[in-house]
Specification:
Helix content: 25-40%
Strand order of the largest sheet: 1-2-7-8-9-10-11-12
Number of strands: 12
Structural class: alpha/beta
Radius of gyration: 21 Å
Number of helices: 11
Order of helices and strands: EEEHEEHEHHEHEHEHHEHEHHE
Shape: globular
Largest sheet: 8 strands, mixed
């Protein structure tokens, strides 16, 4: 299942790219900017700003799921079944209710990707799989990467690598570039903030490096989690000493995804202000360069 295809992207690998966003992720990062990507199944988003006063179409279409209480629309998400998502989305004239996620075949996805092949050839671009976590859909990911690679299109994967190695290995030969997250090397801190295993991620990173695959490390800098000099040193040391990479990207924390939690009726547990620490960002760049890495700040 995918939730978006973004054409003409220039920030997710070299050249002009088409980014395919797949649903499903095994982590629960507090700061996740795409909470609608976590579940493998569809999600219903509700934007109260677009809801028309006095409109009862969604309540009429699904009275067991939608109710109006004290002039406020209440959605009983626990009662949502797969066949009800389209009903609710199609009944809303203002798109206050929208559905995230749709099933598409590899043929359908690749038909969109191949439209821009001339742009890939001129710019050195290609296809990038993102998410969510693409390797949570190992068969679709392998098919998309293999067929793109066989067609001579550059392939990249944006990944947190928090999956079993058997999900990654079948696609390995068809990946030209890994854009891999390295959030923390401390297992306890990683677990507290992501509900995941740092060891699984670090082991996968080592295996990819041992396979000789090209890899860019991305480090989201989150206040209270890893936006400090000690954490940055440890992360950078691992990237330089264990992975033998060339490029590292530091991504300062922002809050642009906060409203998505409101749309999903979910709590937001990350800091409510973006990272504002020029000195720390300078330190990250300088330290990475001292370790022989090409360091980039990405917004």
């Amino acid at each position: 299942m995918i939730f978006n295809i973004q054409r003409y992207s220039t920030h997710d690998g070299p050249g002009i790219r088409t980014v395919v966003f797949l649903k499903g992720c095994s982590l629960g990062c507090r700061w996740c900017q795409n909470p609608e990507s976590r579940a493998r199944t569809q999600d219903l988003l509700f934007d109260a700003r677009l809801c028309l006063d006095g409109c009862e179409l969604c309540q009429q279409a699904a009275p067991d799921i939608v109710q109006r209480v004290a002039d406020k629309l209440v959605i009983h998400r626990e009662k949502l079944q797969p066949d009800r998502f389209a009903v609710l989305e199609h009944c809303c004239p203002t798109q206050a209710l929208t559905v995230c996620g749709e099933d598409k075949t590899a043929d359908d996805i690749l038909a969109t990707v191949m439209r821009d092949r001339p742009f890939y050839e001129r710019s050195g671009g290609g296809i990038t799989l993102s998410g969510g976590e693409p390797f949570m859909n190992p068969q679709l990911t392998q098919t998309l990467l293999q067929r793109s690679h066989e067609a001579g299109i550059h392939t990249a994967v944006e990944t947190c690598l928090h999956v079993p190695w058997r999900y990654i290995e079948p696609s390995l030969a068809h990946i030209d570039l890994f854009l891999a997250d390295l959030k923390h090397v401390d297992g306890a801190v990683f677990k507290q903030w992501t509900d995941g295993s740092a060891k699984r991620v670090l082991d996968n990173l080592k295996r990819i490096a041992a396979a000789g695959k090209k890899m860019t490390i991305r480090v989201p800098l989150i206040p209270g989690f890893n936006a400090d000099e000690d954490s940055i040193r440890a992360i950078t040391d691992f990237a330089a000493d264990e992975l033998n990479i060339h490029d590292i990207h530091f991504l300062p924390y922002h809050t642009l995804g906060m409203n998505k939690y409101v749309l999903l009726d979910q709590p937001y547990h990350a800091p409510d202000k973006p990272l504002d620490s020029p000195a720390l960002l300078s330190f990250a760049q300088d330290y990475a360069q001292q370790k022989g890495l090409a360091a980039t700040l990405r917004g």
